[in-house]
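Shipment paperwork, digital attachment
Item: protein structure file
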Amino acid sequence: MLESSLKKYFNFSQFRAGQKEIVESILAGRDVVALMPTGGGKSLCFQLPAILSEGISIVISPLIALMQDQVDGLVARGISATYINSALSFEEIDQRLADIKAGKIKIIYIAPERFGNYQFQKLFSQLEVFLLAVDEAHCVSQWGHDFRPDYLNVKQYISLLAKRPIVAAFTATATPEVKEDIIERLALREPDVFVRGFDRPNLKFFVRENLKKKERASEALRIAKSIKGSGIIYAITRKETEELAKFFKAQGINAAAYHAGMAGEKRAKIQNDFMENKFKVIVATIAFGMGVDKADIRFVIHVGMPSSPEGYYQEAGRAGRDGEQAFCILLHSKSDASLHNFFIMTSKGEMQAQGKSWEDSRRVIDVKYAKLNKMKEYVGLQTCRRLLLLEYFGDPAVVDHSGNCGGCDVCLSYKWDKSNISESDTDKKTAKRKIKRAPGEIFGTVLETAELYKQGYAPSAIAKIRSLGVSTIFNHLVEWYESGGDFRIEEFLDSKTESLISKAIEKVGSLEKLSPIKKELPVEISYEQIRMAIAKRNRR
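Attachment content:
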């Protein structure tokens, strides 16, 4: 039954590891704590029970971008969902509240701060809520790496309801200690606890130690150039994001800086452009990420050691959410630890100014230093890096781990001074074993797009469902078409445009690069249309 619903609503034929048990537990009326990695499919674990239930479900989520992406994906699947946040006008909020009152909405996304609004509080208290899902639940814990005070009030919000709903907490980064804090602070009732799938074999982990500032920038540039597709580069300070983005652009890489000091509209535009592959690289502070839902990020490079394994694994885990190979690379400098020590001491002063007791301040500082020391250990490790991360997060899979993951620089005996990281470096043996495709046969991410298209979804809807840019979806459909698929190109490429592209191709005289062809065409003709025209020529 669950598999048929999974296929109906999400177009998946089977659950990922751990998902089905969580869905079954929620549908059985049990509270849940689920610790799953970024890209592990945790949102499905609360969305599917919400869809199958009779009542309404509320998802507490910390970021506007995250809400919008998930709601857009649900609506594209034909599921009635909405979000309410500060980015909406008063009129839009009133309309959405009216839709909720009228029973038109199945799933509502809100930020915890929304409960501070009396109008919403009043409406909330009148609802019969089936499920209250708390996403990014580590934000409730003062020992977590991303504590948010508004999450502490969730427990009292639940008490506003006449009937207590099922409460499910989800996070991608929680140690056993933070897990216990989540249970206590959300007042969960004998929850079923799931720790699942922190190991993502498609991610390859690399560390390079003790680089100087200029060396590190050059190394990040070299790696980004060597890997096809887009990526994120994380830096510790805002100033460094600006410097690195400028350096990358000067070297011919389309890059943009992103940090919390920018205006909201500018940040939103950069993020949207990144989704549509207009930038190869985003150079960002940790302000960029929690709301990012781009599935085909091929690399995450940290130009600077993060302050905790939680932060590192969450940020690195934004790579390869489509299940394809991706790289997580940490470029370390000796000054990284000193900078984090400064931040920790600054936070100590801030806590004291806020009136925290000496004992509470000391406990928080001790936890921060313990996390920083674990990151130092990860950087200097001479044994499997993946195993250290799995042990840190309490993943039960460690008992079966051989000690050699075959997917980190230590286990691969990778030598930085002899070769460059590229997609072939870690997979040469695998490449030799690859099975040749039969004519017309496609695999993986392209096949998923083709299946949705065959079901009647428009490319824009597929992009929302799959958390990919529309341009990426068109590229998938063109690849499918070239292998014999029934992509109706004429709906997106009229005969006049195709004729102009053909003339431009003849003038350029080569199909090796698309940019010279694009320069010969009117600006409104896209790269995707050029690829479609070439695909038609190839197929003929």
